[in-house]
Amino acid sequence: MLKKLKSEVDHFKSQTHNFRILVFTNLVYALVLPVIDIFVAAYIMRNSNDTSKVVIYQLAIYTGIPLTFLLNGFLLKHFNIRKLYSTGMMLSGVSMIIMMSLKTLDLTGIAIAGITMGLSFGLYWSNRDYLALSITNDENRNYYYGLETFIYTIIAIAVPATIGWFIQSKVGETEKHTAYLIITGIVFLITIAASIVCFRGRFENPIQKKYIFFKFHPLWNKLLSLAMFKGLAQGFLVTAPAMLIFKLLGEEGALGKAQSIGAILAAIIIYFIGRFSKPEDRIKTFSVGLILFAVGACLNGFLYNQTGVIIFLLLLLIAKPLMDLAYFPIQLKVIDIVSRIEKRGEFTYILNHEAGLYLGRLLGAGTFLVLYYAVSEDFALRYAIGIIALLQLCSIFISKKIIAQGNKLAPEDEDEKIDPKALEETATNIV
């Protein structure tokens, strides 16, 4: 056992300096992600008891993200990517401070906090995606995302349970509110620590300085449709577990426990899939994740009780990492291919990819809101996830077409680099 563990440590040490630093940065920042994803939604539910406000908050976040992706392209001309990446992480703490300072959770205050969190995520994800693309290749991307997902899943065991216990240990609304304030302060300190780690990396900005195009290769258009289906689930799935648990399981203590069940097994499975799977295994991984998600969502809709929620969360705990483990390497592989064909910088595609995600997020969140206002809250919580999960099964067929076409277009020399001069010449075609 120790020999096997040592070999895994040695394998990690064999990766490049920037690879290791990016993993360490994301490891530290991962400590705050469960707080952002789960307990901010729980805070809104506790203080308003209105699931529509949770979804509106999420829509505000998703509106801020693509705007910041676009802004980040401009900022990269003037600032080092490490500064922008660090700023994105710290803004998440600022957003929580804004939320906790609201005396009443009106729509204006929720929207401001949501937009700020969107700015945070926009800076974080746009730069994180570019760095992941630039420091990995198609052969080690399964390992990178498997390792990262393993870390996130392990942290998802301890953080929700610990925070849930901490909040539930307080008596009365005043003490519980104070607990949220303490958590917010800790989150801000962690984002500072993650920023310090980030500055140990030798990360370079993208070569190309202009990123806006309107015509793309057919292969990229297929990936945008896949991104739309991914965004469809994101538009509701981030806050859905918190709303379901708060409605059907109880308060934050139950929320933390439910998120931790089965997470250790899931983390180990995901790590070894990422460590030993090959690029050609991505379709299988993606399909299993999508099917598990659909089964869990449909069972939740059919049962709509405590058992249904727990089953859904258990399956989601495995399904979501599997989907991400396959999706991100597929996305980056397509960027590798089309950026060579079209002679454009990689950040062009990272920026454009967000448009596909945003459209899907609007449709996903919109599905919930339409069902909420047209029928009822319970109807929306019960059936929106199932509808979205079944629609997402289309992603299996789209991803098969993407990989098949990508294999035909992939250059023989995978290490081929884009000529910077060609990038500058192509920039004249930008609108």
Automatic annotation (TrEMBL):
Keywords assigned by UniProt, alphabetized: Membrane, Transmembrane, Transmembrane helix
Membrane-traversing stretches: 21-44, 56-76, 83-101, 107-125, 145-167, 179-203, 223-246, 258-274, 286-304, 310-334, 355-374, 380-398
Membrane in keyword set: yes
The keyword Transmembrane helix is annotated on this UniProt entry: yes
InterPro entries listed in its UniProt record: MFS, MFS_trans_sf, Sugar_transport-like
Pfam families: MFS_1
PANTHER family: INTEGRAL MEMBRANE TRANSPORT PROTEIN-RELATED (PTHR23526), MAJOR FACILITATOR SUPERFAMILY (MFS) PROFILE DOMAIN-CONTAINING PROTEIN (PTHR23526:SF2)
Protein name per the record: YQGE family putative transporter
Source organism per UniProt: Flavobacterium arsenatis
Upper taxonomic lineage: Bacteria, Pseudomonadati, Bacteroidota, Flavobacteriia, Flavobacteriales
